Known about the structure:
Layout: H1 4-18, H2 24-36, H3 38-43, E1 58-63, E2 71-74, E3 80-83, E4 87-90, H4 96-110, E5 117-123, E6 128-133, E7 139-142, H5 151-157, E8 165-176, E9 179-185, H6 187-190, E10 206-211
Parallel strand pairs: 6-10
Antiparallel strand pairs: 1-2, 1-5, 3-4, 6-7, 8-9, 8-10
Amino acid sequence: MISAFQTAALDALQRLMRGAMLSVPCVLLAVAGIFANPAAMRAADEPPGSYALAPNDLLEIRVFQEDDLASRLRISTKGTIIFPLIGVVTVGGLSPQEAAETIRAKLAKDYLVNPQVTVTVFEYGKRRFAVLGEVQKAGSYDMPEREKVTLLDAIAMAGGYTRIADPSKVTLKRKENGKVTIVRLNARKMAKDDQMASFEIQPGDVITIGESLF
């Protein structure tokens, strides 16, 4: 299917050809480029993927024409940073763009006129989870940068089940805001249900695979 952009481009090229403004080889190369890589044309119009800032990420923060405020700050386990002038700022779970807007608003409120703030991730923090019990390689694992890990992914990273494992007996221990929660999961059912299979692991989770009684 030809997009509206491609159609408009072809019309423009045809007009140029009629006006003898381009040679035929140039026209052919332009047309080939349009149809060979339409994704490249769309890239400029598509918003970039959002990354949720997480504890231990190291941020580089700059304020235009305010060199004294340039900072590299690591996000705490509570999802906060301490920025000059404004103090504690919660950025965990925000995208870099959202974090920049949060800092900008706080600076604009009491300190600067129309500040321009940029936030970039200088270094991604290590995010780990553990898989214990009846798996081939029990232990702690690093979560890939900027990627989500599902429960089934975590089990696969641990080498899969042992011979006596019971995939229907999975427990997950998660600590949030100082409170420990235990969740019981059925990985056997998850493997057969795409929606259930999307259950995501969070940094610090401890997964335990139970043993079959038979």
